[in-house]
Design goal:
Elements: H1 2-27, H2 30-48, H3 56-81, H4 89-107, H5 110-131, H6 137-155, E1 160-162, H7 170-173, E2 175-178, E3 182-185, H8 186-204, H9 206-216, H10 218-223, H11 228-254, E4 256-258, H12 266-276, H13 288-307, H14 312-339
Antiparallel strand pairs: 1-4, 2-3
Length: 340
């Protein structure tokens, strides 16, 4: 009897530890998001005499600021789960926005389709180079970052493209709901639908299982019969497609697009959101809901610094610190999983 008790007690402790780790993984960075929001509110009261952060109007602005990064981050999550990286999403966004605006001037709503196709084609081109030529994702997408940025400038004749009668402007400026009672911006609705759709793919389909398997061990995935090349084509294609959607969302907000400036450093924000959300750089570990929380953390940080009157110089420094912290957190997670 004593032997049974002595052997079951360590087992119970192990189960409790595993349950605690599972709870921590499921909660992720949500406590950080909540604490950061409270700190920004209190800092606003202390330094400016008014706490505007938690007002409904400002929270709506935060959600809209996070929406495009969440969409880009969703695509980046697919890529990083396979152990890859996509540094070209900001440039793809710019090229897609320019194409969407130019096509909308002559073909109306077809501009949305043109922008999405632009993003998809560039993403698939990245995937072909990585999957079939086996080039390093970092090098391929770094080259695309520069080349596609040049393409965006070329497509727009190196000027800002305007369309004051943009047919899909409602995406960036209108809301859905009951006017004056409860309204949700279309940007937020689209971002949420992208997150839900991504979650369904990753957690409710065989393709999602294959994506995690490729990220966990590409060689073992290949030996088990998974078409690794097809998975890589899909993840880089979806990353490009969602970057194209981000271009549509940004163009709809601004009625304009500039190949030189639009989307600059967006890839860094997307990567930071993904890593903050718990997806590991080595692949095979992570969740799409974590990416959403990561995008909200970055948006809250940016919005809070603006409300506190912090200059854009210090905003860049703060974002850089967040990215470094995100990578350090990823390393800490890996060491913790190795110990357990």
């Amino acid at each position: 009897m004593s032997d049974t008790v002595s052997t079951s007690k360590p087992e119970r402790q192990r189960l409790r530890q595993e349950q605690m780790r599972s709870l921590i993984r499921s909660i992720g960075m949500l406590p950080v998001l909540i604490v950061l929001g409270i700190l920004v509110q209190l800092a606003g009261i202390y330094f400016t005499g008014e706490g505007r952060f938690l007002s409904w109007q400002n929270l709506s602005i935060v959600a809209q600021q996070a929406s495009i990064n969440a969409v880009l981050g969703a695509g980046m999550t697919f890529v990083i789960l396979t152990g890859g990286i996509d540094l070209s999403v900001g440039s793809i966004l710019a090229a897609a926005a320019v194409v969407g605006l130019e096509v909308s001037q002559v073909a109306g709503d077809i501009g949305v389709i043109a922008a999405l196709v632009t993003g998809l084609v560039i993403g698939l081109a990245n995937g072909v180079l990585i999957a079939f030529l086996q080039l390093p994702p970092f090098i391929v997408t770094l080259g695309s970052l520069t080349a596609v940025r040049g393409l965006a400038r070329l497509l727009g004749n190196d000027t800002t493209v305007f369309n004051s009668d943009l047919p899909f402007a409602f995406i960036g400026n209108d809301s859905i709901g009951i006017p004056g009672v409860f309204e949700i911006p279309w940007l937020v609705v689209i971002a949420f639908l992208v997150i839900v759709g991504s979650w369904l793919i990753l957690r409710r389909t065989v393709l999602g299982v294959h994506i995690y398997a490729v990220g966990g061990n590409p060689a073992a995935a290949r030996l088990s019969g998974i078409k690794v090349w097809a998975v890589l084509l899909f993840v880089y294609g979806i990353s490009g497609l969602l970057a194209g959607l981000g271009g549509v969302m940004q163009a709809a907000r601004l009625y304009a697009a500039n190949g030189l400036q639009l989307g600059q450093s967006y890839e860094l924000d997307a990567i930071a959101a993904v890593i903050l959300g718990g997806t590991s750089f080595v692949g095979g570990i992570g969740s799409i809901w974590g990416t959403l929380i990561g995008a909200l953390i970055i948006a809250v940080l940016t919005n809070g610094l603006i409300l506190l009157g912090v200059t854009d110089v210090w905003q860049y420094i703060a974002k850089g610190a967040v990215i470094i912290g995100a990578v350090a957190l990823d390393r800490y997670r890996l060491r913790g999983s190795a110990r357990t």
